[in-house]
Design goal:
The chain is an alpha/beta fold and 216 residues long. Helix content is 42%, strand content 17%. Helix 4 (59-68) crosses helix 5, helix 6 (115-124) runs antiparallel to helix 7 and helix 6 (115-124) runs antiparallel to helix 10. The radius of gyration is 17 Å and the shape is globular.
Length: 216
Amino acid sequence: MDEEIIGKSIIFIPGNNYTLKHARPFIRFLEKQPWVEEVIFIQLLENIYFDLDYDRLRPKEYSKYIYKHIPDKSKKYVGFASSMGCYHIQNFSHFYPDIFESIVLLEPTMCGGVKNLLMKFESGRGNKEYISRLAGMSESALGPSLLSNERVIDIAVSSDRTYWFPPKVHLGIIYTPYNAQEQRYNTTQLDAKKDFLDMLKARGYMFKFFLLRGGA
């Protein structure tokens, strides 16, 4: 095997509601690969604390949380994230661009935090009224009624600011036809996901795209 791919360390950031127990079979699979040295699992803040305030969840502050859990900050890592974790790893790589040599996104359903794409995807999930309410109301009015993961979505759809990947990072993106409930994505959701890929291309990112036939 090519020595260049031996001994990679992976930072694994899961999706919403994914515990270490859920992720452990995949982590074990990765650890058996000859090119993997270690897998560092960093749990989402919103999977640990359900009532975090907005300031702890904003991209810059959230990225400090991830950075704190990087064991060797002088190394280059392979980033792997799924679902909502893709949004956090994108933000994190923006604020700490020297951490990753490559990033793999599995079903980036937050559409990179791009407001109009995220609203489109969530509308396709039947959440048009809900997502419009988040975008249209103040944090102080919404705060007490929302869980931490909902506040993350609120931050994304209430801002036009997108924190993009470092320009030279190698990207891999994996889509599947099905969501976590094994339901097929509908046309609106598929369009939002395609628009995210098109936006990455328009911004000059080179990436490898994979479509798996099974569920995520």
